[in-house]
Every structure is written in C-alpha cells, then in structure tokens.
Amino acid sequence: MQRHPLFLSVVCVMRNASEDLENVLTRLGDELGALVNDYEIVVVDNASDDDSVSRLQDLVGEGGLPNIQVYALTNQVSRDAATWMGIESALGDYVAAIDPLRDDVAVLRHMLQRAVSGDDVVFATDENPDKDPRGYRVARGVFERLYRSFTGVRLSQEAPTLRLVSRAVINYVMHHPQPAISYRLLPATGGFIRSYVTYSSRPVAADHRSVLDGFDRGMQILVSTSRAPLRAVTMLSLFGAAANMVYAAYVLVVAIVKDNVEPGWVSVSLQQSGMFFLMSLVLLVLGEYILHMAALSNETPDYHVAREFTSAQVSSRERLNVEKVVHLARPPHDE
C-alpha cells in the first residue's frame, strides 16, 4: 500500500512502562514508517518512578529508534494534561493521541485514511470493554449517564480518547483558556467534520486506574464544559425556598385550626435535615466551580518538563535536499 505524503505525529503518554517501551515503540515506528513519508513519536513520560526515562534515553541514542521526541515531566499530571502537552509540541500535519499499551496501533491506518479524505477529527472506539477493573467501569458508566443527562454527549462513544486531529483543530483548541480540558470535548462538539471507527485489542500491559482519579477527572470535565450542574443547583435552591414557604404555611394552618399544638419535633427535625442536605449540596457544587475559576486564573501550565531529548536518527533530515556550499578565496586581481 502506498504511503501518504504527509507528516504524522503520534503522542503517547506513558508511565512506569520500562519493560514494554522497546516493544511498543518499535511496533509503532514500523507501523508509521509504512503508513506515511514522515512521522514523529512524541513520548510524554508522566513522572515515572521506575527507570523509564533512562530506558528511553538508551532507545533514542546512536543506532537506536528513529523519530522519537521524549518529554519527561517532573510531576504526575492528568492524562488529558499530559496528552495536550505532547500535542502542543507536535509538528505534524495530523496528530494522533494513542496509548500503545492499550490501543491497537494498526487502527491508525484506517483513521488516517478518513482524515486525508477530508475529516477534521477521527475517533476510534474500542469494542473490548474488559480492559479496566469492574469498579472503574461501573463508576465510569454512572458518570457518563450523568454527563449525558447534562450535555447530551456520550463521552465514550462520541469523544473517545483515541483520536486523530488535523492542525486546524489543534489551533482552534489552543484559543481556549484551558486547552488541556477543552481538548477532551471540543473536537466532538466544535462543528468539525468528524467520523468514527471501531477496533478491538487486548492491552499489552495492565493499567490499574483509580476510581478517585476518575472522579476528579470527571468533575473537572463536567464543570468546565457545561453550565447544567450550576443550573441544577439553582433549581434545588429554588425548591428549598419553596419548601420553606410551604412549611411556614403549614405551620400557620395548624396554628389556626388546632387549639392545642404540641411542639412539632419530628417535623422540625425533618425540615432541618432536608435544608442542611440541600445547603451541603449547593456548597459542594459551588466549591467545584470555585476550584475551576481558580484554575482559570492560574496562567502557569499544569506540567513542567524536566528533560527533553530526541532520537539521534531522524529520517526527515536525511531526505532534505541540502547542498553544502564552500566559498573559495578569490585570487587578487592584477593591477
């Protein structure tokens, strides 16, 4: 099959994957070399605490794997932030975000075919649902139902993490105040031409995902992409106020109709508990929005690169048509 005459960047966020690095990067490089004329693999090491960074240095040294750019972060950040960091540094005409430990790299061929046909965004959905622990899958399903009720978007189906985007999409996302978060949803809702492909693969290595980390990431996506939660809070506040008025009217009716009114301990207790529940819920969601506003006011990035290095061999440099010009000293003219 003929290779596409373009430059493709592939961003891989990896952490503590020292034993699998050579295998997955070699396979990814072979796949890309047969797919496009020029490519680069942008590896973002998300603050690994094993020997991944030193292993990457060995892999990209003299005689090592070509066309690999490595960014080693000093502290662990969310996968979305690390992915966007790699996308910002990518140079390709198209940029794909893929997890080579979990995703099938062969699907890139089908995704790129859709992209060169005119699609701005190509999403790939994994048909194998058993990669994550059961508890994580249950929590994710609950969140996605909640998110869909607020926004009408099914994240796993309409905005999966495995995607290939054009340079125009990247430039569009860069104009948003929090591109690392906006990138998660904007390509699916920004009016771009998009398409979807499916694949099925088994993970190369186990990836234990935390429910707490997933909750934090989900709340971040929810409050940054929708005003519906705040609208729900205002409705709850309105309901609480109405309930207070109804209860006050009830107390007045009882005081007028009944001669001997015993202290309504049960009713008062229920009313107080209900009101405190609503107030707590309001404070919880408002607190999330305050955290989001604080994040918007922070102009510093979520990540910091500790080390950066590139493959000693870059195939695109070898194909450059550069001729070395030697300037010779001209002999003096005879008078």
What is the first-to-last residue Cα distance?
66 Å
Radius of gyration over alpha carbons? 28 Å
Structural category: alpha/beta
CATH architecture descriptor of the largest domain = Alpha-Beta Complex
Spell out the helices and strands N to C. EHEHEHEHEHHEHHEHHHEH
CATH H-level homologous superfamily name of the largest domain: Spore Coat Polysaccharide Biosynthesis Protein SpsA, Chain A
Q: What fraction of the residues are assigned to beta strands by DSSP?
A: 15-25%
In terms of quaternary structure, what is this?
A: single chain
Tell me the number of structural domains. 2
Indicate the percent of residues in helices.
40-55%
- Low-pLDDT runs of 5+ residues are none
| Total count of helical runs of at least 4 residues | 12
- The CATH class label of the largest domain is Alpha Beta
By DSSP, the count of extended strands is: 8
The CATH topology of the largest domain is Spore Coat Polysaccharide Biosynthesis Protein SpsA, Chain A
> What characteristic shape results from the CA principal axes?
elongated
Biggest pleated sheet: 8 strands, mixed
Task: Please tell me the overall pLDDT.
Answer: 78
Please state how the strands of the largest beta sheet are arranged side by side: 7-5-6-4-1-2-3-8
